[in-house]
Amino acid sequence: MPITGEMLIGQSKVRGQNGQIQGIHAATGETLSPAFGGATPDDLEHACALANAAFDAYRETAPARRAVFLETIARNILELGDALIERCMAETGLPRGRLEGERARTVNQLALFASVVREGSFLDARIDPACPERTPLPRADIRLRNIGIGPVAVFGASNFPLAFSVAGGDTVSALAAGCR
Fold this sequence. Notes:
Blueprint: E1 7-9, E2 12-14, E3 20-21, E4 36-37, H1 41-59, H2 63-79, H3 81-92, H4 96-119, E5 126-128, E6 142-144, H5 169-177
Antiparallel strand pairs: 1-2, 3-4, 5-6
Helix pairs in contact: 2-4, 3-4, 4-5
């Protein structure tokens, strides 16, 4: 997957119009291509509106489907192969072994959350059956489960470009919980 410098907002590639941001090669100080266009306030509002519009449907996805989504993210990270590691090395100056370990940690986090979602106990589902004979008034069937409460914004750490960044634990836990 080539790096284009575009943002992905919804299902569209968007070239940011709020200045340019360029990575710097940690060892040489050279700028890395491509330049990324910065998001405008309108871009941010649009992304937030799309996340909000998708939230209810995503929250109600079946746990098995959500687990497959997390596993697909992990597989896609692995399929990026050396290109991902080499870009991370250039931007951070971190050695290959450290970044390969971080990629493995990221993929393992995704797999762990997928297994927890698939297993389902995190929902803490409870059912108290109706008591139609209760006096002075009957009691209705009462059901309880944990659910995602809304879209989530994650601010990632640049010193851990994978495990604590875009695909890190905060993002993965939000996606696993049904937040978008």
